[in-house]
Structures are given as C-alpha cells and as structure tokens.
Design goal:
The protein contains 6 helices and 6 strands. By secondary structure, the chain is of the alpha/beta class. It has a single domain (10-155), classed as FAD/NAD(P)-binding domain. The protein is elongated. The termini are far apart.
Length: 179
C-alpha cells in the first residue's frame, strides 16, 4: 500500500461557526472574540501559536531592541551623573530574555484558546470550496473543516525588492532572532 493511500481525510462531524486560518495577532484575536461570543470556532496553524509576529518577528525583535536600548542608556548614564563600572553586552543573556518573552506570549495565546474553547488544528489550511477548509495535518493526516464563516489571517512574508541585485543578500527576522 503506498503512502498516499494510507492518509486518512476526515470531515468535521458538525459545522463550525467560524474557522480561522492563521494564529498571528489577527487570527488569534478573531478566535478569542468568536469564543467570547459563544461561537463554535477552530483555528488552523502549521507552526507555533502566535504566528510569525509572536515567534520570530515583532515580539522577539522588540525584546532584542529593548536590550540594545538599555545598553545605550547605560553608556549615556555618565552624562546624567550615573556612573557604572565596566559596560558589556551579554548576547546569550539577551537571547535568553527574548526566548522568555516569546514563551510567555505563546503560552498566553495557548491559554486564551483553551479558555475560550477554541479548537486548535495543527496543520496547513487551504480553502477547499464554499465553507470548507482542507487541512494537511502536521502529523501527516488530512482533515476537512466545515464552517459557516472563514477568516484568512495568514499574515505576510518579506519580499525581496525588484531593485536589489541577484547577488545581494537580505537578512530578515527569523535568522536574526535565532543567532
């Protein structure tokens, strides 16, 4: 039996009021609000809850920038009568702080999903016709969710500028945030 024949596709037993594809700030906030309104909701996410923003974009970048800002403030302290000893930057310590901020943020999103009774479906969702979201599950299976409403909140990705040369190398947030 080939691998394709072993994959099982299941269709949800009942219809969700709303299915959200993507768990970034747009997706998880929509899911929470749906739950607060008493709607039966599911959120589909292939990566960590919180999407790019909470895991490798906005939040970790701001945590690292805050560390850099603090370093700059300390360096400027003498001008304001604040004297400190030797000033150094501990990259490992800054990264540990950033990781803690990210974990607290994603743990918070996971808590909100449970609190508001949102079903989290781990996989990559695609529109599959009117009121249908097909999900290739992270564990290898497949599932189709039926929904009265669908919200696509998949965010964005950086796109290289057409003006950049083919040999130019761009650096975006995932590599920087995982140094």
């Amino acid at each position: 039996m080939n691998e394709a024949a072993r994959k099982v596709t299941t269709v949800s037993e009942s219809v969700y009021d709303v299915v959200i594809i993507g768990s970034g700030p747009g997706g998880y906030v929509a899911a929470v609000r749906a739950g607060q309104l008493g709607m039966r909701a599911a959120i589909v996410e292939s990566g960590a809850m919180g999407g790019v923003c909470l895991n490798v974009g906005c939040i970790p970048t701001k945590a690292l920038l805050h560390s850099a800002d603090l370093l700059e403030e300390v360096k400027e302290g003498k001008r304001f009568g604040v004297n400190v000893g030797e000033i150094s930057f501990d990259l490992a310590g800054a990264m540990k702080h950033k990781d803690g901020v990210v974990k607290a943020s994603t743990d918070g999103v996971n808590y909100l999903m449970k609190k508001n009774k949102i079903e989290v479906v781990a996989g990559r969702g695609t529109l599959a016709g009117r009121g249908q979201v097909h999900v290739k599950l992270n564990d290898g299976g497949e599932r189709t969710l039926a929904a009265k409403q669908i919200i696509v909140a998949t965010g964005a990705r950086p796109r290289p500028s057409p003006a950049s040369s083919s040999t130019a190398r761009a650096c975006s947030h995932p590599p920087i945030c995982s140094i």
